[in-house]
Amino acid sequence: AAGVPVCCLHKRLKFDPFALGRLKRLLDTWLPDILHTWLFAANSYGRLVAGGRARPRVIVSERCVDVWKAGWQRWLDRRLIERAHRLVANSASVARFYRDLGVPEPRIRVIPNAVEVPGDGGLSLAVPQRERLLAELGFPRNAKVVGYIGRIARQKRVDDLIWAAELLRRIDDRAWFLMAGDGPEHDKMQRFAKQVGVAERIRFLGHRDDVPQLLRLIDVFWQASDFEGLSNSVMEAMAAARPVVVSDIPPNRELVTDGETGRIVPVGDRLGFAKAAARLLADSNEANRLGQAAQRRMKAEFSVSRMIEAYVDVYREQKAELTGQPVAPRSG
Asked: What is the separation, in whole angstroms, between the first and last Cα of the chain?
């Protein structure tokens, strides 16, 4: 619809020389001014093929504090540092991780993820809609819904949320729980919920296309991750004016100020998560205050237009360095 040509490299193998060759032929044909790649495989292929050329300018993007990377992957990242002109990180925490890996500070730019605030401000569901969705989930009409939306993977520490759910339901019997998303630990966490004895209170929904609707149902959103880049799910919850309870990791602190735009709990503190959520379920005024403040922050600091402007500035800067001309002033 936008008239942008799309070519698939059909990468099949962990290291695929055929895809590498296809990328080289595309660059030889298109002769772009800028090559912008995203995440480990694309960043590696782009730097291997184009990093030694005067043109294009190579921009790599990193989206997470990648403590998961194996030794050979970190070795390759270090080897390819000089073959990229800029590294764009989506948070100060990601920038710090790659600076510590050896990327020179002047080459790093931080452009946070962005989120759109709902046009109606993320109003909660009307009573008939809420009751209908609660019934579909098998929740009682008076249920208070605590939710997690995201990948069900080890780094997300979903087991901490399941333990916290068991504790929270004993504090507040109105508490019911949903987990929307899929991932490598989905089935394992379902079994774990049964072992803990809270399975009847939790709905594992898998992939959903109605996340905005679920966010309007949720009374408290929580996330317990070990590490992140800049959590889109937390940002979406904040944009929808949901009060959030998140783990105390640097990327989450870039989004949430404890007591101002949400609540922060130490990583692994299951009782802390339960208590923080219980306080918000018990005090709707406090929950609303935090949710509204969170939404204002998303609108002011993490808008899509602000993100686009930042990327345009990086592209214009690289174009100017390629041509040897000063950066032209913005039009309009």
From this structure: 25
